[in-house]
Amino acid sequence: MQAISAQKTERHYFIDWLRILLILSVFIYHIGMFFNTWDWHVKNPTEYGGILKNTMTFLGEWRMPLLFLISGAGTYYALGKRSRGKYLGERFKRLIIPLTVGIFILVPVQVYLEKADQYNSLFSYYPHMFEGIYPSGNFSWHHLWFIAYLFLISLFISPFLNLFRTKAYLRFSSRLEGFAKRPLSLNIIAVVLIISQLLLRPYFPNTTHALVDDWAAMAFYIIFFMAGFMLLSNKNIIESIRKQKKLYLMEAALATAMMFASPHLFSDESALDLAWGISSIILAWSCGLAAIGFAKQYLNRDTRFRKLANEAIYPFYLLHQPVILIIGFFLIKVEMPDFIRFLILTISSFGITSALYWYVVRPYNLTRVVFGMKPFPRKQKLLKEQENLELRPQLVVEQ
Length: 399
Known about the structure:
With 399 residues, this protein is mainly α. The protein has helices spanning 4-8, 13-35, 50-79, 84-105, 107-114, 122-125, 145-157, 167-180, 188-200, 215-231, 235-243, 245-265, 269-298, 304-331, 338-361, 365-370, 379-398.
């Protein structure tokens, strides 16, 4: 049996790499939203379905669940020996402060651009910010829903933190190691996911990211988060996932085929919804485990770029969508081939978002805290320590 403290001494770099790649996939996904046939705040004059729509449908089924899965693992390792109060305090600073600032600074830009014909400027929009709930009204948290949900999940697990430090939990984790060695045995979590959706989807059929009417999706994300918290905190379970990575990849491929084939196999709408729903859940779970297995195999290494990128991805996530929309808003006014518009939008959005992080967010403690980063050590403290080091030899001589 392994103690929790022993496992925490080994950093799993592959989790950082997965997080980096997933945030980049969110960026690419939102570039795609500008061009596909789904509703979005600002749209390209010509919209595309077909391969683009199917690719984004595929990504949409497993990308965010995997992000919640690795967020659960990250929360476990960040928890350390913190008390419940310190844990919630850290979650408040890292999640609620950026969420609040984002709602008042980043989200209004996006809502205004979508409804620009109703207001003379962004400043004239602000007095109307609290008039109703988006989309019919103006108030929203838009892409920041993920941060709000993470904080609520943190509140949900906080009463049980001490449970994960007991000998009984260590015994349970040890038994779980043996269970995970059996091929595809972790699909038991997929069964739990399916049951949760069968129970809740009749009452909350749509994923809205609005919380109050989104409890089926919230339950779905909580299960993924807790699976990451409990499974990815055990290196032997991670090793079992790594060994079975090809099995989970094959399962993901079969679930994908079934999901896209279901509209052609079922004419009855309820049967189609059931087949699509079950296959999409299996896809989300198996694709997530396959990604973890392959990342553990090939990405579990440290580099200087990993450290820089891992620190940058949270502010990048907060900033990227309003930047994409601002650039897209002006690009649609200029005649050009859509491929050129895609290149300009992608390159300029990535460059400007990265520059905002590097030159505006990263250097200053205020902006670091606002965007969920740890502040630099206080300059006064560093200067004091430097002065003490410079004075110490003189004091010795005087004595």
